[in-house]
Amino acid sequence: MIDPGVREQMLAPPPASALLPGIGGSIKHRCEDFVVDEIPAYGADGREDRHLLLRVRKRGMSTPEMLKILARDLALQPHEIGCAGRKDREAVTTQWLSVPIASASQLEAVSIDGFEILESHPHGQKLRTGHLHGNQFAIVIREPGIDAATAVQRVRDKAMFIESSGGLENVFGEQRFGHDGGNIEDGLAFLQAGKRLGPKAKFLVSALQSALFNLYVVLRKEQGWLRQVLPGDMLQRRESGGMFRVEDASVEQLRMDRGELVVSGPIFGAKMRGPQEGSPAALLEQEVLRRAGLDPEVFARAGGKRLPGTRRPVQVPVMDFSASEAAAVDGLPEGVQLRFSLPAGSYATRLITELQCGT
Questions:
Q1: 17-73 residue pLDDT tens
Q2: DSSP string spanning 31-90?
Q3: I want to staple 172 with a disulfide (CB 3.0 to 4.6 A). Which of 156, 210, 216, 227 is the partner?
Q4: Which residues does the annotation mark as catalytic?
Q5: Is the pTM of this model over 0.90?
Q6: Beta strand 261-267 with 234-237: parallel, antiparallel or unpaired?
Q7: Is there a contact between 188 and 299 (Cβ–Cβ < 8 Å)?
Q8: The CATH number of the domain where 94 resides is what?
Q9: What is the pLDDT of residues 143-190, one digit of tens each?
Q10: Is 189 inside any structural domain?
Q11: Cβ–Cβ contacts within 10 Å for residue 62, how many?
């Protein structure tokens, strides 16, 4: 059982900008108030013998729901449809899918409420999870606790603070952890049981991995180390995404200060690249596992194929940020219209939390 205080840090890491006044309010009053557009990692390659890349738009359905219904209409199994990322249900989202080329003749007959196919292009490979560059967002926060003009200025100030602090803390949103965070405890039970990880177990264990990453960010921030290079750290190059282990902390600190590098945190697993053994960076990762009551060897016992692990940047840039007043519409109150982009895997709801919080 995870200590309640530690569990709270995993579920809801404290916002970085809490000392700045926020705007309160709420989101998702209607699907059109939460618009997401995928930024693909690459375009179609034009090969006509394998798959089709589809650009689709959905409204009011989750990605798994969409895949299930589309597979039914195309007489496919859901796993035959490639998908780069999951998108919210209460939203209007545009994303890319791939389907076997044999399904091309059936696409025109697809008729699903809240779903449309916008583009179709021949492509040689099935689309895989993570094959996207990022996401563009257009989100309205309605019912702020202040007038709209003041709210706009406050979110701009918050965005400037986040940028000057090195970026948005790249923690996982609470939706990752299920109702009341139950996925964390269930994942812990599966992992400690040492049994084979089926699809459901892997999903729950991945929630635990995400929670451990959140705890790592919290502990690192408590020490003032989000942008402080520690001996043995695993750093990531912002431009290329390449990862390397620190040999000379003073040299890499200069590059960190210039914005060239970002600290990476652990998504624990059997094949995860870790800090130099015995280094301050390694001791910090061990402290995360200690607070969660986990034996470091538990991930190795799960196996590299089932639970390889990886690393994730602790901060990410908020790109192309803008804020403006949003008019009242359809009986809904006025608010603030936000537009921004985030790298793949980062949570827009974390940025919203930052903008809402504060006195």
A1: 999 999 999 999 999 999 999 999 988 888 877 999 999 999 999 999 999 999 999
A2: GGGEEEEEEESS------SSEEEEEEEEESS-HHHHHHHHHHHTT--GGGSEES----SS
A3: 210
A4: 88
A5: yes
A6: antiparallel
A7: no
A8: 3.30.2350.20
A9: 998 999 999 999 999 999 999 999 999 999 988 898 888 999 999 988
A10: yes
A11: 16
